[in-house]
Amino acid sequence: WLLWGRGYLLPALVFVLAGLGALFLYRFLLDQDEQSVRRYSREETEKVTLLMSTEVRAKLLALQRMGGRWTAANGTPEGQWRDDARSFVGQVEGLRALEWVDPGYRVRWVEPLKGNERALGLNVLFGPQREQALRGAAERDTLTLTPPLDLVQGYKAIIAYTPIRRNGEFDGFLAGVFAVDDLFGRALRYTSDGFEVTIRSDGAVVYRSQPTGQAVYPLLGAQAAIHAFDQHWMLQLSPSEQIANRRLRLVPRATLIAGLLIALLLALTLRATLLARQRVVEAHGLVQRTLALA
Q1: Do 88 and 81 form a contact (C-beta atoms < 8 A)?
Q2: Is the peptide bond before 252 cis (omega within 30 degrees of 0)?
Q3: By C-alpha distance, which of 124, 138, 159 is closest to 71?
Q4: How far is Cα 237 from Cα 174, in angstroms, rounded to an integer?
Q5: Coil, helix or strand for 152?
Q6: Do 186 and 105 meet the contact criterion of CB atoms below 8 Å apart?
Q7: What pLDDT was estimated at residue 249?
Q8: How far, CA to CA in Å, does 82 sit from each of 15, 137, 163, 233?
Q9: Cα distance between residue 72 and residue 120, in whole Å
Q10: Phi, psi dihedrals of residue 139, rounded to the nearest 5°
Q11: What are the two backbone dihedrals, phi and then psi, of residue 15, each rounded to the nearest 5 degrees?
């Protein structure tokens, strides 16, 4: 900083004030653009949540209807059940296997058998919480879902249990085994290109799909719950660099650059004006002194 009389202080002050104004305007415009990205993320999240909730519920209701046929017929012969199960698994995307769990809570039949041999004979009451949920579902005659589990078949899945009856008595469950990657991977079909899809169960990430080679911005994303009977999962969409660049306009940066240039020009113009005025004053003083000496 130099003395006021040398013409630096006031131009510097003008540059700082004008630059701060440009910076505040840049921040305001950038906030507006970021709000636009968040709004777009929220709209996409709400759309995907609605579509996925509807699709998952439709699959579970189809499983319930199959269980209803068992109950209405007071049981299904094994051969007929296997034919129906193979057809059902082939029609329902994401469904890897269908099982009959007997009244003793052990897996007795499974389709397809190939790849699921290790599931035969398993006791599905594998913990106090699951035992309580299954026994409660049997008593209330309602469908229940497990959280994502690591299965002996070698993949992570959600299992839906729908109670069935024979002659009015509890006859076990029909269990649908839905692979997590297949079930939640369908979210990608509903999202616009460039979103990272993250799904959590009880706070733990159970599925994540990231746009190839792109940075993502979770703070500009949105989340919503997918509800299905007694379970819910949290879906989060985070926009990628591609979406952010498309939605974050160049106006804020251009405004900042233009504002700083204007501030610099104002400061230089003021500096030149002050110097010119100083020279006039100095010249006038010189003339006065010359006249006085004459």
Answers
A1: no
A2: no
A3: 138
A4: 33
A5: coil
A6: no
A7: 58
A8: 81, 24, 18, 31
A9: 26
A10: -70, -40
A11: -65, -45
Count, residues in the chain: 294
> What's the burial of 10, exposed, middle or buried (CB within 10 Å: 0-12/13-18/19+)?
middle
Q: Which secondary-structure segment (H or E) carries 140?
A: helix 128-140
Take residue 110 and report the two structure tokens written for it.
């499974």
**Residue 258 exposure: Cα atoms within 13 Å on the Cβ side:** 8
What is the reported pLDDT for 96?
Answer: 93
Neighbour-count burial of 35, counting CB atoms closer than 10 A to its CB (0-12 exposed, 13-18 middle, 19+ buried)? exposed
- Whole-number Å distance between alpha carbons of 174 and 37: 44
Tell me the Cα Rg of the chain. Answer: 35
Q: Are 222 and 45 in contact (CB under 8 A)?
A: yes
This prediction has a pTM of: 0.72
H helices present in 73-103, as ranges: 78-91
> What do you get for the CA distance between the two ends of the chain, in Å?
40
What averages of pLDDT result for each successive group of 10 residues across the chain (294 residues)? Answer: 54 77 73 78 89 89 92 92 93 92 93 89 82 84 88 86 92 93 77 81 86 74 89 89 66 70 77 73 70 66
Collapsing DSSP states into helix, strand and coil, what is residue 123? strand
Cα separation values, 221 from 5, 37, 207, 283, Å: 54, 8, 16, 65
Which of 179, 159, 180, 154 is CA-nearest to residue 100? Answer: 159
